[in-house]
# Entry
Amino acid sequence: MNGSRIGAVGNVRTGWGESARWDEALQRLYFVDCASNAFAWFDAAAPDVVVSIALPSLPTAVYLTTDVDRVLVQLDEGLYAVVPSRREASLAIAMPPNEPRFNDGVADASGAIVTGSLLLDPPGAPAAGRYWRYAPPAGWTRILEGKGNTNGPCVTADGRHLYVADSTASLIYRFDYPPSGDLVGERVFADTTPLGGLPDGATLDAEGCLWSAIVGGSCVAQFAPDGVLLRAVDLPTSHPTSVAFGGRNLDTLYVTTIGASLLGVEPTGELAGALLAIEGLGSQGLPTPRCPF
# Structure
């Protein structure tokens, strides 16, 4: 990629890195390691100093809150409140009844959480997943049924549209997202099959373009607001999993990756498991919304 530079952040190595989330207030990157049930972070001023705490179950999503020393992390039992300064974690919001667990998620402009089912079914299996929204006082509300593994949800800056990847189907969908949270106007935004992998974590840039980690495809892809593929940035590892713009100007793209052989995944590449930083892309991210609960 002309002008871009890709490197590893410090000595970070994860078995299954996921859920990168940049905190502008603290100039800090949060991420998780699904292989070791760990929640980790580093501050931009000291990227070689990575702090990690053990969690009681599989972490799959990270949400900032209006309390900068309180982060919500999605686990088997529900949303845990993590207080980084005290290295503490406790259950804050339980899962809705009869929902086995959630995967990736995002906070919208109002701070409500949009997430969905974690499914590990093979391609072609019946789509049995659901999308959910959490906002007080209503709590958990089911907003869509009949999708596969939920990944990469993103809400546009104006709050009017939601993108969600169905990794099981290799598709990214775009929905109209009214203030009620009900999803309408479903359409296929992009098919990642030609890129050789599945759509995983995603983020939006200031121009409204969607950046998706193509797990198994050794790249991150940038899609225009109309779904046209603008570029695929090749990576020195096969399984990127999530992306987040960070840095002082929100112009560094951080990428988590898989480093361990798990669930039939066999990552390759010299930086498998590393946390990557891509600079010089010419794109800038958006501030991360915060949950007020």
About this structure: The CA atoms of residues 11 and 48 lie 7 Å apart.
